[in-house]
Amino acid sequence: MTAIILYVAVLGSIAAWWLSRQRLMAKPWLEVGAAGEAPGTGASEVPAAKLGLWVFLAVVGALLTLFVSAYLMRMHMSQDWRPLPTPWMLWFNTALLALSSFGLHRAQMAARIGWRQGIEVGMIAGGLAALGFLAGQYLAWQQVMAEGFGVATNPSSSFFYLITTVHGLHLLGGLVVLGRTIYRTARGAGLEQLRLSVELCATYWHFLLVAWIALFGLLLHG
């Protein structure tokens, strides 16, 4: 419950900061100027796609926060909780996801200077590392099953499969969008469109990296 309250407080702070940037309390009718002129309010113009992504990330963040709260509550609820052995593969997978996020960061930097080849290399490298992460998660499942922890063996193992599956599905969805962006880059799409697309992909990847680090820390704690 504390995690949920903290998450809502953080979202509220971000929303208040964003609204303050829009100068919603400004009174344009009191601005000095010729009739018919529309004085600027100083509000930042946020692309609809970027705003939509942030709303989506807020929803996903809320979902993951609920998982964290449920995990912690269930862990201390009764004596049937058996700590799950941490598969060594998860450490390697974390490094792969960090490399994937770095590849998208490099692609974003290349997009800002208009370097098409750098965009393609960064996105392809990030996508391959993400695929490696998903393959590594499957191998981690195999390690956990070899230790005798099936999906319904213990509450800790059930949460492990649930958390890794939900995170993996979000990453898989991101790979679909990333693949489309790579295709558009190869087809010679305009740089302005590519900059926005690459920025959205990079933001999503950074979010998934931070989310995974938090979830991995939770699994280590459990």
UniProtKB/TrEMBL annotation:
<keyword id="KW-0812">Transmembrane</keyword>
<feature type="transmembrane region" description="Helical">
    <location>
        <begin position="119"/>
        <end position="139"/>
    </location>
</feature>
<keyword id="KW-0472">Membrane</keyword>
<comment type="similarity">
    <text>Belongs to the cytochrome c oxidase subunit 3 family.</text>
</comment>
<dbReference type="GO" id="GO:0004129">
    <property type="term" value="F:cytochrome-c oxidase activity"/>
</dbReference>
<dbReference type="GO" id="GO:0019646">
    <property type="term" value="P:aerobic electron transport chain"/>
</dbReference>
<feature type="transmembrane region" description="Helical">
    <location>
        <begin position="200"/>
        <end position="220"/>
    </location>
</feature>
<feature type="domain" description="Heme-copper oxidase subunit III family profile">
    <location>
        <begin position="1"/>
        <end position="222"/>
    </location>
</feature>
<dbReference type="InterPro" id="IPR000298">
    <property type="entry name" value="Cyt_c_oxidase-like_su3"/>
</dbReference>
<keyword id="KW-1133">Transmembrane helix</keyword>
<dbReference type="Pfam" id="PF00510">
    <property type="entry name" value="COX3"/>
</dbReference>
<feature type="transmembrane region" description="Helical">
    <location>
        <begin position="51"/>
        <end position="73"/>
    </location>
</feature>
<dbReference type="InterPro" id="IPR024791">
    <property type="entry name" value="Cyt_c/ubiquinol_Oxase_su3"/>
</dbReference>
<dbReference type="InterPro" id="IPR035973">
    <property type="entry name" value="Cyt_c_oxidase_su3-like_sf"/>
</dbReference>
<dbReference type="InterPro" id="IPR013833">
    <property type="entry name" value="Cyt_c_oxidase_su3_a-hlx"/>
</dbReference>
<feature type="transmembrane region" description="Helical">
    <location>
        <begin position="88"/>
        <end position="107"/>
    </location>
</feature>
<dbReference type="GO" id="GO:0005886">
    <property type="term" value="C:plasma membrane"/>
</dbReference>
<protein>
    <submittedName>
        <fullName>Cytochrome-c oxidase</fullName>
    </submittedName>
</protein>
<feature type="transmembrane region" description="Helical">
    <location>
        <begin position="159"/>
        <end position="179"/>
    </location>
</feature>
